[in-house]
Amino acid sequence: MPKSKAKYSGRLKSYLEWPMITALLFIIMSVIICYINTKAGVVACLFCAGYLVVMALVIFLYKPKVMTDLVAFAAQYGQVQKQMLDEFSIPYGILDVDGKIIWMNQQMRILLEKSNRYHKNIANLIPQITPDKLPTEREPVSIEVSLNSRDYRVELKRIRIDEWHASTDLMSIPEDQCYLHTMYIFDNTELKKAIRANEEQRLVVGLIYIDNYDEVLDSIDDVRRSLLLALVDRKIDKFIGSHNGIMKKLDKDKYYIIIKQKYLDLLEANRFSLLEDVKTVNIGNDMKITLSIGIGANGKSYVETYEFAHAAIELALGRGGDQAVVKNADGISYYGGKSQQMEKSTRVKARVKAQALREFISTRDDVVIMGHKVTDIDTFGAAIGIYRAARVLGKRAYILIDENSASIRPYLNMFRGNRDYEEDMFINHKDADELVDADTVLVVVDTNRPSNTEYPLLLEKSKTIAVLDHHRQGSEVIKNATLSYIEPYASSACEMVAEILQYFDDGVKLTSIEADCVYAGIIVDTNNFVAKTGVRTFEAAAYLRRCGADVTRVRKIMRNDMSSYKARAEAVRHAELFMENYAISVLNPGDLDSPTTVGAQTANELLNIIGVRASFVLTTYNNQIYISARSIDEVNVQIIMERMGGGGHMNIAGAQLKDVTMEQAKEKLKETLRTMTEEGAI
């Protein structure tokens, strides 16, 4: 049997060296004693020799036994460690670099119902742990999974094995694979239940407004009014009570509600059925009652939750009413909004906004007017109206148009070179940067989305901003607006400006070409007074006619060239009827100057086909895909376009898509229509 080459090392070696040092000291002591006294020295040497013999026997005879005991202890200690890890109460396992299972403890084997002979990839048992989810060297990874109807949190961590690899010659492992993955699985079922229970108990604040309170009461006789209001109160109270909520009437047409979070989830799942329920209340009233609901949830405090509810109800009203808006810290959700908002007969709001705008303009040096990107005639006409209002007050006014489309070029030419107008009436982005400062009124027309404005940076430079728009509000709004006049019932921004001008300064008188521009804006947005036209639309048109608007002259300017007409006819001819109700077509832009305008005309044309509830025309312009959406009264195309990142009116809307092909855009539109139909949103 070969001689063992095992040696002591570390602290054990230092500990065993002390007897040797003691023996050396004894020898020195014996020599000194011999020098002093020979007899005493001999005795001391004898004792020293005995000590050396005993120590030699201990070292050479007991060393193998000590080594054996040490190895046995180490083996027993390692076995204890292994047993403790195997019986560890938390499921634990080791994976290789690719995610294959190397070893699992007892709890892991029970959980995954596999033995230690199973060495396949962990993704076969837990699909969420894909190779790309394995941790990097810097930080561990936590993944939420569900197994056997219970919720678990898997923690994965990478461990290096460089030292072990360096100490063995049994295998050669590449440097980039010198690691393993450890996996812990924690049962979070009870914790998640407690969190869900806590969230479900949170209080949610809501506000409910009757949209058309005065109009409905005016439609019935005095005797029935009290009964009608009582029925509405009962309907709302019963609905909120069925969800264990509290309802408090704040005013004749306003209600305050409190419910728990778990019932809000039910309301959202049913898409706020109260909106349709209340329309069934009828005791002879000519029109249906509609509600606006604003819900605030998940605020940091009850004050913030109420602020969310107030912002939500304002948004619901700004979008035309007959809908519910839920606002929380994560975002905003919309429900309903299927019916057309009734036109208000009173012009009090228009008069108040006109006077406020007059005050702002009169106290500032300059006025800059801008609309949305790709200026259309409604934007241009509204800007011309505001320009005239500013000039009446003796203020310099500028209209920001950096890139004009072919559709407004004829109108621009009427002003350029005209001696009655300043040469710098129209400015670009560079000019606007130099003009706009704290003493400038910035008037935004025909849009209320900051990202859609002609030059969004101006919104940060001006301290006085007025917004005039007829599009329904979305989650993105101009937050720092000093004056915001948004009326979704209005047919166009030009209609709103025409009303404002009549109350601005003893009735502002437009010139004939200015009146033509404003009139043209109404004509285009109403599709020749066919879509979204009310009494006030005709009153605005009458005012413009008195200012000198010439219907024949406007019609001549609005005529299309032959290429535009042919492109529109081709798009109509190749239109596809999707889900039997939605006409979808692609307009080939070719060499058209303004394909978006022709696309909108095509969408209007498709509505003349029997059975078409909504039409969508896609065209390419400026490396983007523009979608023009139109409907008559059955479908709210605004909420469809909002799902695709756009917006607009209930009957007129649009969206722009970037970095997609035409086929991808069409498929996204179809998928949106399918999804919203399944949800009952349209």
State the gist of this model:
The chain is of the alpha/beta class. The protein has 23 helices and 23 strands. A hairpin with a 5-residue loop joins strand 1 and strand 2 (101-104).
What this model shows, in words?
Strand 20 (614-621) and strand 21 form a beta hairpin. A 6-stranded mixed β-sheet has the order 7-8-6-9-10-11. It has a 6-stranded parallel β-sheet with strand order 14-13-12-15-16-17. The chain contains 23 helices and 23 strands. Mean pLDDT is 84; it is low at 163-173. The chain is 44% helix and 20% strand. Helix 17 packs across helix 19 (551-557) and helix 20 packs across helix 21. The N and C termini lie far apart (90 Å). By secondary structure, it is an alpha/beta fold. The longest helix is centred in the first third of the chain and has 49 residues, at 38-86.
Characteristic terms for this protein:
6-stranded parallel sheet, alpha/beta, single chain
Annotate the secondary structure layout.
Elements: H1 10-36, H2 38-86, E1 92-95, E2 101-104, H3 106-112, E3 141-147, E4 150-160, H4 162-166, E5 179-187, H5 189-200, E6 203-210, H6 213-218, H7 222-241, E7 246-251, E8 254-260, H8 261-269, H9 274-277, E9 291-297, H10 302-318, E10 323-328, E11 331-336, H11 348-362, E12 366-370, H12 377-392, E13 396-400, H13 409-415, E14 426-427, H14 429-435, E15 440-445, H15 458-461, E16 464-469, E17 483-486, H16 493-504, H17 512-525, H18 535-546, H19 551-557, H20 562-573, E18 576-578, E19 582-587, H21 595-606, E20 614-621, E21 624-631, H22 637-643, E22 647-648, E23 652-657, H23 662-679
Parallel strand pairs: 9-10, 12-13, 12-15, 13-14, 15-16, 16-17, 19-20
Antiparallel strand pairs: 1-2, 1-5, 3-4, 4-5, 6-8, 6-9, 7-8, 10-11, 18-19, 20-21, 21-23, 22-23
